[in-house]
Amino acid sequence: IKSIAVLTSGGDAPGMNAALRAVVRTANHFNIDCYGIREGYNGLIAGDVTKMGPRSVKNIINQGGTILKSARSKEFMTYEGRKKAFEQCQKLGIDALVCIGGDGSFTGAKVFNEEFGIKVIGVPGTIDNDIFGTDNTIGYDTALNTAMDAIDKIRDTATSHNRVFFVEVMGRDAGFIALNSGIATGALDILIPERKDSMDDLFSTFRMAEKVGKSSSIVVVAEGEVLGSIYDLAKATKEEFPNYDIRVTILGHIQRGGSPSCADRVLASNLGYGAVIGLMEGKNKVMVGMQSNKITYTPIEEAIKKHNEIDKNLLQIAEILAM
Ligand code: F6P
Q: Could you report the per-residue pLDDT of 78-87, keeping only the tens digit for each?
């Protein structure tokens, strides 16, 4: 491997910059040329590429977002788009692509490799933690802590006013942020897509909460939850319990921002380093991950197709501890 290019793609996640820094500096350490691509695959198609050296990634380990910028490229989903991207790789002499992103970005990388033979390696960067082949994805820990801080603040006002709050957290189709932030904030109930909840289950939880003397409560709802929109849930609850004073909060994109946590910076450093090492060892079409504190490589199609399981035990713990 003589020359690699790195991009960030899909939803940004805190720690992507730390991963970029690790890729650039590891490449430099082993005398591999490194190019940074702006705005995900769009930049590869347009040739929006700059050579990066160790000083181009100074002072970014603590920054949220991604200095390369990110995109969900429509053009790269087409063969013509990918062909243009390949021509840019040829022009620059790029042997391999490091793609920091989520499953959509990995799908693009996989197809690109199959069509044009450019080596690819994925680095899991998404707050959703929905990627198989790594215990955690870059950005998840920071997003969890952001959600936890926000819900703690909601608890203060919920308690002061004896209110019921429905709080929506991100995660796309996965309930990891909801389950873990819900446990960490002592939520009365946690609604996630992986468990098929019913309105009746939710109502009986409220009834139990009344019985044990709770005067306020927080229900954490994953955005991918399947019972209905958070507003529907709040409305149905109000109809069932007309005396409840209910509020809805959607945390939204604040969960994507902010300085990465220590855990995310260390994870990103490991994975960025591991990506370059993997390429040097001849690995291709894999995703680098951390499993039980070890750098591992998983075929990219497995990382895309398989899913991390929600910890059923944690769900039960949440229920027991809520009352
Ligand atoms: O994948 C990260 C994520 O923040 C999801 O949790 C959420 O569903 C989605 O991206 C939001 O996407 P956008 O930033 O395009 O609104």
A: 999 999 999 9
The answer to whether residue 128 is catalytic is yes
Centre of ligand 1 to C-alpha 93, Å, is: 33
Sign of CA dihedral 189, 190, 192, 195: negative
Residues 24 and 276 sit within 8 Å (Cβ to Cβ): no
CA–CA distance, 241 with 41 (Å, rounded to integer)? 50
14 CB-near residues (< 8 Å, 6+ apart): 64, 65, 127, 138, 139, 142, 143, 256, 257, 258, 259, 260, 261, 264
User: 106: part of which helix (H) or strand (E)?
Assistant: helix 103-116
Beta pairing partners, 168: 221, 250
> Using an 8 Å Cβ cutoff, are 100 and 125 in contact?
yes
Q: Tell which atom from ligand 1 comes closest to the C-alpha of 127.
A: 2
Query: Ligand 1 centroid to 150 CA: how many Å?
Result: 18
Q: Which atom of ligand 1 is nearest to the CA of 255?
A: 4
Q: Is the interface score ipTM higher than 0.95?
A: yes
Q: How many Cβ atoms from other residues are within 10 Å of residue 279's Cβ?
A: 26
Whether pTM > 0.90 for this model: the answer is yes
Write the DSSP symbol of residue 31.
T
Residue 313's contacts (CB-CB under 8 Å, 6 or more residues apart) are none
Taking the C-alpha atoms of residue 18 and residue 265, their distance in angstroms, rounded to an integer, is 6
